[in-house]
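User: Please fill in residues for this 375-position structure.
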């Protein structure tokens, strides 16, 4: 049986360094906001090319902190994609705002600038347009120049949800540097993942950075017992920061390895009838959080079962668009409102993807998929 898990391979490669970093934290005993947190923030800011990075407890909290720092609350509309993980819209609701969805572009699977503007123009009376959360789905950056053009003159704040795209680029600009503020996740399966939960907020705005720094520690003022505002308990653990510092050392190499895996998949699977390959965007470098193909809807379960029978794991990201999730039923959306997102949810299938997939594993998964589609 082939081994398709990448976390084990990565951790075995750098295990001595990980263990040394963890021991160092135990030696100094500063488990909350220890020196590794600040060191990581400085390195991540430099990597992304922004002035400030602030670590936090998860990618969800990173989005929530960004929204809170922007002042989003009751009566505010925040527009986003229905084709993503629930956290992108959940954070809006947690901040007190109202999620408003706009369909995605079939050419990128990301937020469609034209549909975004249409959704903005069609806002229900009483809702104040406040911000947009653009999600870089599966590691491909959104078309930010087009999104910014669509939002020109609106005054809306643009938030980049880079939970899946940290390490990606568009036009030489790295994920984390788009919009007014960006958020990412360090969930273990992400391109840069820790050994638990973690996240970060990125911005060039010093006022926003100061607010996030306060909000992540219970809204602290001059010290933790001076509470200037209502905040969260959303700090990044020192142990996770220490682990991320080690993983950051090999991150560029792993991004290149992910690209090589994606290139091999594309070479193997190009031209297979009924199969749609992951999209691209001119000038973009994908971080390849997932390698997600599209298969005919009526065949997806059978294809997934055929791969499973041969030991090839698959996943469906995502089986139901957000506007049809029970959690957002109160918003009043119905089937057919966002046909592109709904169609993707019926067709997408993610194949094994990580930096340590061998050529034989990629070739085997590709051949099993090809056979399943031809059956």
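Assistant: Residues filled in for all 375 positions:
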């Amino acid at each position: 049986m082939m081994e398709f898990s990448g976390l084990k391979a990565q951790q075995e490669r750098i295990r001595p360094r990980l263990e040394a970093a963890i021991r160092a934290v135990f030696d100094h005993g500063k488990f909350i906001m220890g020196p590794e947190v600040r060191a990581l923030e400085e390195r991540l800011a430099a990597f992304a090319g922004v002035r400030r990075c602030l670590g936090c407890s998860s990618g969800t909290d990173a989005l929530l902190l960004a929204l809170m720092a922007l002042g989003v609350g009751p009566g505010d509309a925040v527009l986003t994609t229905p084709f993503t993980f629930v956290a992108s819209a959940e954070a809006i609701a947690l901040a007190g705002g109202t999620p408003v969805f706009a369909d995605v572009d079939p050419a990128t699977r990301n937020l469609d600038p034209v549909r975004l503007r249409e959704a903005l123009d069609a806002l229900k009376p009483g809702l104040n347009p406040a911000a947009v959360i653009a999600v870089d789905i599966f590691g491909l950056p959104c078309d930010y120049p087009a999104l910014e053009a669509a939002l020109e003159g609106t005054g809306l704040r643009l938030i980049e949800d880079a939970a899946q795209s940290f390490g990606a680029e568009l036009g030489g600009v790295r994920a984390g540097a788009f919009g007014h503020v960006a958020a990412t996740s360090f969930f273990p399966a992400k391109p840069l993942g820790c050994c638990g939960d973690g996240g970060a907020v990125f911005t060039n705005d010093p006022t926003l950075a100061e607010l996030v720094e306060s909000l992540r520690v219970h809204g602290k003022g001059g010290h933790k017992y001076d509470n200037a505002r209502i905040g969260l308990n959303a700090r990044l653990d020192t142990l996770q920061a220490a682990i991320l510092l080690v993983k950051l050392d090999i991150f560029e190499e792993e991004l290149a390895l992910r690209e090589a895996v994606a290139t091999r998949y594309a070479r193997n699977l190009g031209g297979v009838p009924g199969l749609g390959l992951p999209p691209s965007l001119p000038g973009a470098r994908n971080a390849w959080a997932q390698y997600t193909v599209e298969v005919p809807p009526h065949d997806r379960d059978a294809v997934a079962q055929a791969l499973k029978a041969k030991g090839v794991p698959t996943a469906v990201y995502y089986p139901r668009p957000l506007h049809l999730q029970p959690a957002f039923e109160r918003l009043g959306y119905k089937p057919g409102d966002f046909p592109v997102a709904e169609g993707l949810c019926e067709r997408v299938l993610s194949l094994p993807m990580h930096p340590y997939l061998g050529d034989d594993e990629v070739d085997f998964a590709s051949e099993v998929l090809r056979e399943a589609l031809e059956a």
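For context: The chain has a mean pLDDT of 96.
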